[in-house]
C-alpha cells in the first residue's frame, strides 16, 4: 500500500521526459531518440518557404499543417542556396543539399529534458558562418553538446547571397531570418524541454557578426528573444547605404538579364533560383534605417546595443585561411590590405602597415608565399582580434559583463602547414570534432581531446547561467571578464589553459588600425583618405 502510494507521488511529482513526437499545436513533429542520450528533431520549418511571391520577402510564420499531420523531423532538410555556383556547399556532400526552400532549424535536447514543470533547460541558438554568401557550417550534430551541457542546441539556416542581402523587395532578409528563428524558439522551444526565457544567441564568423548586429538592432527596445550572446570570431559586415547598395541590385539584374526590363524585380522573382547565382556580384547587409541604423563599431562605441552578458573571442591565427596563401611580394600584400578597406588607405598608411606587419619576420611555409603569414597577421588583427576588442570595450564601458577568449589549441599538423589555430577551429571544441564538418584537426581526437569537454563546459555554463564559470571542468581557470584597461582573455590551449592579457604590441597595433576599421564596414567615397599612425 505504502509502496504504491510512493510510486503515485513520484509519478505526479516528476514531469515526463520529452517524447520524440512533439505536438506544437499548429503541427506535430516526429524526431529521433538517440543512443547517446539526446533526442534530435531535424529539418524543422521555422518560416514559410521563401519561394515564389515570398522570394526576397521578410520571413513569415510557417503555415499550420492539416489536423493529424505528423511531419518527419528525422532527416536534415536543405541549407540555403549560396551566392555562387562555385561555392563549396554546391559540391556533392553527404551532410547537406542546397535549395531556395531552406528556412529550417535543427534541435538537439537531452532525452531526459522535461516539457512540463519548472526544469526547463537553457537554449544555445547557433547561427552558422559563411560570409553572408553561404551556409558554411551547416548541419552540425549538437547532440553531444546538448547531453554534456544539459542544454538544448538549436542550429539555424538563414538566407544568404541575393536571397538574404539585397535581391530586391525587403532588405536584410538574412538577419530577419535569424530573428524569425529566435521568435520561433521563443514560441515553441518549451515543447522540447527548453526554457524560452533562457536563450543565448551564438554564432561563428558571419554568424557572430550577425549576433553583434542583433545586439545593436535591439539597442532601443528589447524584444526579449535572448538573454546572452556568444560571438565566435566576430567581424564587421560591409554595410552599404541604399544608394551604395543599388550597385548590388543592378549587378544582379545585369547578370541575370533582368536589367532594363519593365519590372526588374518581377523578372528576378520569375527566374529559377539557380539562375540567380552569380560569381560577379557580392551581397551584404544594408543600412536600412530600421534593423541596421548605424555601422556596428559606431553603435558599440556609442553604447547603443542590447545590454546582456556576452562571450566574444578569436582564434590565434584568424587570418591564415582568409588571405591568399601565395602572397609573395610587398606590392601584392599592400594591394590586398587596401582592398579590404575599399581603397581607403593612403600610401603613407600602407607604409605603416608595411613596417608593422610586412617587415616583421615570420616563418615561410612550403608551397606558400613569403609574406603569407605577415598578411595573415594583419588580416587577423583588423578583421577579428581588434574588432572583438572594440566590441567588448564598448560593452565593458557600459558596465556589461563580457568575456574574451583566444583559441590557441596547437594541432601539430596545422602548425606545420602554417595554418595554426585557424578561423573557426574552435567549433571542434564547442561541438566535438566528430560533429562538425568531418575535417577537424586530427589531434582533437587524440592529444587535444581534453580541450573538448573544457570548451563545452564553459559554453554550457554560460548558456545555463550567463556565467561561463558556472560548470567549468575541475582544474580549469576562472574566466575573468574583459576590461579595456586589462584586456583580460582566457587562453584555450591543451595543458596550458590560463588567463592572459592582450599584450602591449597587439594593443598598439589595434590602436594604429582603429581609423581603418570603419572603412572596412562602409565603403568610402574618398580613396586614400584614411591615415594610420604608428605610435
Ligand atoms: C538528465 O540527466 C543528466 C545526466 O545524468 C542529469 O544531470 C540531469 O539532472 C537529468 N535531468 C533531468 C530533468 O532529470
Ligand atoms: C549525432 O550523433 C549521434 C551519436 O553518434 C548519432 O546517433 C546521431 O544520428 C547524430 N545526428 C546527426 C544529425 O548526425
Ligand atoms: C553587365 O554584365 C556584363 C558581363 O556579364 C559586364 O561586362 C557589364 O559591365 C555589366 N554591366 C553593368 C552595368 O554592370
Ligand atoms: C532550377 O533550379 C534548380 C535548383 O535551384 C535546379 O536543380 C534546376 O536544374 C534548375 N532548372 C533549370 C531549368 O535551370
Ligand atoms: C601610391 O602608390 C601607388 C603604387 O606605388 C602609386 O601608383 C600611386 O600613384 C601612389 N599614390 C599617391 C597619391 O601617391
Ligand atoms: C603579442 O600577442 C600577439 C598576438 O597574440 C603575438 O603574435 C605576439 O607574439 C605577442 N608579442 C609579444 C611581444 O609577446
Automatic annotation (TrEMBL):
Keywords per UniProt: Hydrolase, Signal
Pfam families in the record: COesterase
Domain called Carboxylesterase type B: residue spans: 19-506
Gene Ontology molecular function terms on file: carboxylic ester hydrolase activity
Domain of life the protein comes from: Eukaryota
UniProt keyword Magnesium present: no
InterPro entries: AB_hydrolase_fold, AChE-related_enzymes, CarbesteraseB, Carboxylesterase_B_CS
Signal peptide: 1-17
PANTHER family assigned: ACETYLCHOLINESTERASE, CARBOXYLIC ESTER HYDROLASE
Protein family: Belongs to the type-B carboxylesterase/lipase family.
Protein name: Carboxylesterase type B domain-containing protein
